[in-house]
Write a structure and sequence with these properties.
Blueprint (H helix, E strand, L loop, with lengths): L2 H12 L15 H6 L7 H4 L16 E6 L10 E6 L19 E4 L8 E4 L1 H6 L3 H20 L4 E11 L12 E9 L12 E9 L6 E11 L4 E12 L17 E14 L2 E11 L10 E11 L1
Antiparallel strand pairs: 1-2, 3-4, 5-6, 5-12, 6-7, 7-8, 8-9, 9-10, 10-11, 11-12
Length: 305
């Protein structure tokens, strides 16, 4: 009998809820909850959630600061630059290749894209730079010109104007000006033991009626820094002056064949041109009865082939 009051209490509590899905007093009303719209259906709520396919996806790479090191002597400030973290940073870049370029040579009359080109023989055989090959080619062309127009053995040509009979090793009796022309030739191999002097031949002609001479011999040459050089020669000369005379305006040279020596101090102005101070002397070294001797002094211009 004690269970009936408990069941009765439960029946009284539940029975009023049937047919009315609401709440009485503070009890939860399920009907109101079911008639209310879904919270995601609110328009203001939609704006906060944009579908992924309609939005733009922006992906940024992380960056790293690169320090550019400047030269100490420039005094420039250290600068920074933002670079992608996956980019290689090279502080000391590898130098570009400096291989000698090929010197192309056009053949035939074709030009443009149809031109036939070949590697310069000098570049191909000697493996030198294009600039050096150009110099050697020009030098070769000059040698070809020399071969076709002048003797191969001719190395120097000199022309000058000299004061006649100037002393100081003899008394001055004759006067006037002398025109001097001299040619030097390649030194033969058998003269290497004595310093490889160059054979020379020359002529000195007086502008008046005084002594003229034709001479030949050997010339030694020494070059120095700055373009300076020294010449010294030994040889013999024949002349048309007096061997013995009592005239006060003529030299008594004693012999028709005399020794001849000369010395010159020169400067290469711009190759192959040079200028030189020249002095020469002729005498018989007292091998004849009279030996007054004769000296000339002046300037000469030289051209080297």
């Amino acid at each position: 009998m004690t269970r009936y009051p408990f069941y009765l209490f439960i029946f009284v509590l539940i029975f009023p809820l049937q047919g009315n899905a609401g709440t009485s007093g503070g009890i939860y009303d399920m009907g109101k909850f079911l008639t209310k719209g879904h919270p995601f259906a609110d328009s203001s709520y939609k704006k906060q959630y944009i579908p992924l396919e309609k939005s733009k996806l922006i992906i940024t790479k992380p960056t790293v600061k690169q320090t550019v090191i400047s030269k100490p002597d420039t005094g420039s400030k250290i600068e920074t630059q933002a670079l992608p973290i996956d980019k290689k940073i090279t502080l000391f870049p590898k130098p570009k290749s400096t291989r000698n370029s090929v010197s192309p040579v056009k053949k035939g009359n074709k030009i443009g894209k149809n031109a036939i080109r070949e590697i310069s023989p000098i570049v191909r055989e000697k493996k030198v730079s294009v600039q050096q090959a150009k110099v050697e080619r020009e030098y070769a062309d000059g040698n070809k010109y020399l071969t076709n127009n002048t003797p191969q053995s001719l190395t120097d040509l000199r022309v000058g104007l000299l004061l006649h009979d100037t002393g100081p090793f003899s008394n001055t009796k004759e006067d006037g000006l002398d025109v001097n022309v001299e040619a030097l030739f390649k030194s033969p191999a058998y003269l290497e033991e004595i310093g490889s002097p160059k054979p020379h031949i020359g002529i000195t002609i007086n502008n008046g009626s005084d002594t003229n001479q034709l001479y030949g011999g050997l010339t030694w040459n020494w070059g120095f820094d700055g373009g300076y050089f020294v010449d010294f020669s030994l040889g013999a000369a024949i002349h048309d002056g007096e061997t013995e005379t009592d005239r006060i305006d003529k030299k008594s040279l004693g012999c028709s064949l005399l020794f001849r020596e000369s010395i010159g101090l020169g400067y290469v102005v711009k190759a192959p041109h040079s200028l030189m101070l020249h002095f020469d002397h002729i005498s018989n070294a007292k091998l004849c009865s009279r030996n007054e001797g004769l000296e000339n002094l002046g300037l000469r211009y030289g051209y080297s082939f």
